[in-house]
Each structure stands twice: as C-alpha cells, then as structure tokens.
Design a protein that fits this description.
With about 600 residues, the chain is α+β, with helices and mostly antiparallel strands. The protein has helices at about 5-30, 155, 170-200, 210-230, 230-240, 240-265, 270-295, 300-330, 335-355, 365-415, 415-430, 435-455, 460-480, 500-510, 555-565, and strands at about 45, 50-55, 60-65, 70, 80-85, 90-100, 100-105, 110-115, 130-135, 145-150, 160, 165, 460, 485-490, 495, 520-530, 530-540, 570-575, 580-590.
C-alpha cells in the first residue's frame, strides 16, 4: 500500500472515530425518550432529621438528627423510626453506611432488609462495613420505617450514620461516582503489575534479579487487589458483602509477609537478613493466628485486623530505620528510593490514624490512606522498573566494555610496524611504477586510519580526516575506472569527530555515484561560512540518502550522534530523484548554533 493511500485511510479512520464519539455523546447526554427515568446522581435526598429514637429503658422517645454517636454498650439494640416520604416512586430506596453493625429494617410489621449476622455462624460471626440499600418502593407515604442497629463492638454500637433516599439507580450511581477513581487505579495497578510480571518471566536476560522484581510486582498486585476488595463497588458487583470484606482482610494479613520478603532481597549482610527473616516469621504467625481465631470464633477479623494495623505501623517504622542504615552502609540508590516510598506510606498511616480521632474527618475516612497508598504503589512500580533497566544497561555496558577490550587486544596483536614496513618496502621497489606505488601508499594510509579508528575518540583536525578521505577516493578511482572525483578543499583548520566524514563519503560512492546510469561523479566541497564550516558531499546517483539506505562502515545514527554531541554539528540531507544526493555537515563556529532541519 503506497504512502499516500495509507495517509488517506488514516484520515478516514480518524474521521469515523470522531463522528462515532459525537454520536455516542448525543445518545448518552442529549437524546432520551420522554418520561424515561434518568440516572441524574443529584436526586438523592437527605432524611437525617426527624428520626424517633426508641427507648427501652423506660424513658421517653427522642427525636434525633443524624448522624449521632450515642452512648451504647456492646450488643445494645438501637431502634430508629421515620415516616415514609410523600414523594416516593416505585423504585425508591433508602441508603446508609454502617461499619461493624448488624442491621434490620422493617416496613410496618414486615422485615424488608437484613444485613450482618444476627445469630452465630461458623466463620461468619461478625458484621462488616457496607452500604445498606433498602428498597421501599411498595410502601405508602406515611408508613413507618423502623431500623434496628446493634454491634458486637462498643466503639460502633451507638454510631448512627446519615440516611438518604432516592431512586435505586441514583443511589448506585452516587456510590460508584464516589469510589470509581480508587477502583480504576486499583485495576490499572493490577494490570501493570501483571504485565510486568509476564514480561519479566519471559525475559532472557539472566543478569536481572528476577526474584526481587517478582516479589515487588507480587506485592504491588496484592496491595492493589486488597484496595479493590475494599472498594464498595465490588460489593455492588458481587453482591457478597461479607465474602468480599473477609477476602480483603485475608489479603491485608498477607501483605506484610510479601513486602518484607521483597525488602529481604536487599539484605546482602547476614545480620540484616536475619532481622528481615524474624519479621517474616512474625507476620506469617500473625496471619495464621488471625485465620485460626476466625475459624474457631476466638477473635474475629474485625478486632484482629485492628491489632494487625498497629503491628504494621510498628513494622514500617522499624523497617524505615533499618533501610536507612542499609542505604548508608551499601550506598545503594534503590534502597534510598525504597526508604522514601516506605516513609510516605508510614506518614500516611500516622496522619490517617490521627485524623480518624476527629469528627469532621468521618465522611472522608480513608481518603488520606488511599492517596498515600497509591503514591506508594506508583513509586514502587517506578523504582523496580528503574532497577531492572539499570541492571539490563549494566549488562549491556559490561558486554560493550568487554567487546572494546577484545577489539583493542586484537589491534595490539597485529604487528602494524611490520605491515607498514613491508608496504613501504613495496613502494620503494616500485619507483618507476608511480600508479601502483601510489595505490600501495593510499592503501597503507587507509589501513592505518581504519586501525586507528578502533581506539580513537574525540576531535581531530579536519586536515587529518581529509588525508584519510583522499586516500580512500583515490583507491576507488583506481578500482572504478569511470569514477570522477572533485575535491574543493578551501579550508581545513577546524576540528571534527574522528571517523565521521569518511563513512558518509563511502556511502555516497557505493549507494550513489556507482549506481548512477551516467558517468559516476563525486564532489567534495569544504568551505567556510559566516556561522560554520561546511563539508558538502555530492553524488549523481539515484537520490538515495543515508537516512533511507546507508552502507557505510559506521552506522549513520552513530555518526549523527557523535557530530551533535562532540562539536554540536548538524547533518542536512537533500535528495533529488534521479539526480543525486547532497549531504552537508555544518560545524558551528564558536558562539553559533546549528538548527536541525
């Protein structure tokens, strides 16, 4: 497919996508049948005032405005009553969030909703944090809604949240809208960790510490999964509030074991490694103990995880100190990076714990932890990937250094003095054959410069490079009888990276002049301009430049990079189909800048 047709097809595809997005936007946000119920997200109404708090202690009932935090003991039953609003429809529901409280909702004398566990069940003793969406669409305005709340924990026994009502679709939309960012970030981090794990497994580079990286990616995946399981949207999707919560708690108990095992990979000294190993055993025992306590109803996860969170904070604090000592001892930048990420997570946990003591933070509970956690995980991805790239580059540099050393050794092994003495002897024996003696001389110059090119770096006077180029062109003229060479060397008193111009001349001869349908011709011009010294290589070939087809002894990109890096020179290529190529190298004078074209 030709380039023009491909460009046209790309334009058509882009236009089709753009038109599709316009139509999608119109259907979603503009067009809708009359009378259709829309998910607006702003129709949820707060009915937190006017609730009657039922008293069983012989006192009077109270009218309360939610939220409230009453003084109540474990297992005390709180009873709230309210009339059904007048503006309910067939799909109206009420919604409120509870933490570790059992919930029962009655409409009149009929139980319409239960959440939490009202009786003991094996492995399922405790209620869990959740949104309670209770449909009341069949109710009549004025009927009584009664809500019963109780908790096995004194901390949550008297806590009563705000209560809202609206269409069920609007309630779900609000829950999703409030939690979707966290959900997307968790899924994205899980996908990134999974893809990086797969790429690491199939990577053939044996120098990369795959064990360390796999533990890191496993921890990132597990932490993102824990965040995902803690997201209320997952409760809506799976409709298994208890199961999702318990899975998240199991994951939380496992996370310290994986994280410490990852940090253990940095402990090169045995005394540091032992400390990490002790930490792994402590958190592994903590995990198994929590699971056994839950199974045998000794202590449920809700209580046990609170203890674990304190243990995690202590562990992170000790780990930060240990990482600081290790970073100082090893002078390892990656350990410093891990220390920064670890400190951010620790500070986040401390701030979250402090803010949770204040009433104003209740509606934002967990926000600081979410932000800090995702910053921590993103830093972890960057740190590990940077370490992998560093290890790969280190292996590459080691291989290149080894290759350079071998190349230098090979050059040293050549008895160059003997070779050049022999060539000079041959030239001396051909005093009467000037053409052949000149060919041998040019060959010796070309050979000498090729050997020198294996070790020579930096800038040299262009006069030296020009001697090398002239020797090469005279050799080509001798081999290719019809080749015409013109050299206009008006100036040569400037510096240029060694071995950068001659390969371009070779390419102009091989891919340009010698492929010409007329008399092959090469013109080399060196002249001075106001802002630069210019080297121009002109051939009369088919118009093939180095950027399209290059056949020199040094890669074109390497030449261009050396010119740019060492003397800030630029390369300009102009092609004329059937008429040839003009390559111009511009070496700037002091105080001038060559712009890329």
């Amino acid at each position: 497919m030709n380039e023009r047709r491909l460009k046209q097809l790309n334009i058509v595809v882009v236009m089709a996508i753009f038109a599709g997005l316009i139509f999608i936007s119109l259907f979603v946000f503009v067009f809708a049948p009359e009378g259709q119920n829309r998910i607006t997200g702003d129709t949820i109404t707060d009915i937190s005032d006017g609730w009657i708090l039922k008293s069983y202690a012989g006192g009077n009932d109270e009218i309360v405005t939610l939220p409230v935090d009453l003084k109540a003991d474990e297992s005390d039953i709180i009873v709230l009553m309210h009339m059904v609003p007048d503006d309910i429809t067939g799909n109206t529901a009420i919604v409120f969030k509870t933490e570790f409280q059992n919930v029962r909702v009655m409409l009149g004398d009929e139980t319409i909703y239960m959440n939490g566990v009202m009786n003991d069940q094996k492995l399922m003793k405790n209620a869990v944090p959740s949104y309670n969406i209770v449909e009341i669409g069949e109710a009549s305005p004025g009927e009584i809604i009664t809500i019963y709340l109780s908790s096995a924990y004194r901390k949550y026994s008297g806590r009563i949240p705000n209560i809202y009502y609206g269409t069920k679709s609007d309630i779900i939309f609000n829950i999703i809208n409030n939690n979707v960012v966290s959900l997307v970030l968790a899924i994205a981090l899980m996908a990134i960790a999974l893809l990086l794990t797969v790429s690491l497994v199939i990577m053939k580079n044996k120098e990369v510490d795959k064990q360390k990286a796999l533990y890191a990616f496993g921890f990132i995946f597990a932490t993102a999964l824990w965040s995902l399981l803690s997201n209320p949207i997952m409760q809506l999707i799976t409709k298994n509030i208890f199961g999702i919560y318990m899975a998240g708690m199991v994951m939380l108990l496992l996370l310290p074991v994986i994280y410490i095992m990852y940090q253990r990979c940095f402990a090169l000294k045995r005394r540091y490694a032992k400390i990490f190993e002790i930490g792994i055993f402590i958190y592994a025992i903590n995990f198994l103990t929590g699971a056994i306590f839950q199974m045998f109803n000794v202590c449920d996860f809700a209580t046990y995880v609170s203890i674990t969170k304190v243990l995690i904070m202590i562990g992170l604090l000790l780990l930060s100190g240990l990482m600081y000592l290790a970073a100082d001892a090893y002078e390892d930048k990656m350990i410093y990076s891990n220390l920064i990420a670890n400190t951010i997570l620790l500070v986040t946990l401390v701030i979250e714990a402090v803010l949770s003591l204040f009433k104003f933070y209740k509606r934002y509970d967990g926000l600081v932890l979410d932000v800090g956690l995702y910053i921590f995980l993103i830093l972890m991805v960057i740190i590990v990937q940077r370490d992998i790239i560093k290890e790969v580059n280190s292996k590459k540099e080691a291989a290149l250094n080894s290759l350079e050393q071998k190349k230098e050794q090979i050059v040293k092994d050549i008895n160059t003095n003997l070779v050049f003495k022999a060539l000079n002897e041959a030239i001396g024996s051909l005093k009467d054959d000037k053409a052949n003696s000149r060919l041998i001389y040019n060959t010796s110059v070309y050979l000498k410069d090729n050997i020198r090119a294996t070790t020579e770096e930096g800038l040299v006077p262009f006069a030296e490079e020009l001697t090398y180029i002239k020797a090469y062109l005279e050799m080509e003229k001798r081999i290719n009888k019809g080749l015409t060479v013109e050299i206009e060397d008006k100036v040569d008193n400037f510096m240029i990276p060694y071995g950068t111009v001659e390969p371009l001349v070779e390419n102009a001869v091989r891919n340009g002049a010698l492929k010409s349908t007329v008399n092959p011709r090469i013109v080399l011009r060196i002249y001075e301009r106001l802002d630069c010294f210019a080297i121009q290589i002109v051939d009369n070939g088919k118009g093939i430049g180095p950027d399209k087809k290059y056949d020199g002894t040094v890669p074109y990109k390497t030449i261009k990079k050396k010119l740019k890096t060492l003397c800030k020179a630029g390369v300009e290529i102009r092609n004329k189909d059937g008429k040839g190529t003009i390559v111009t190298i511009k070496v700037p004078k002091e105080g001038f800048i060559i712009k890329e074209e």
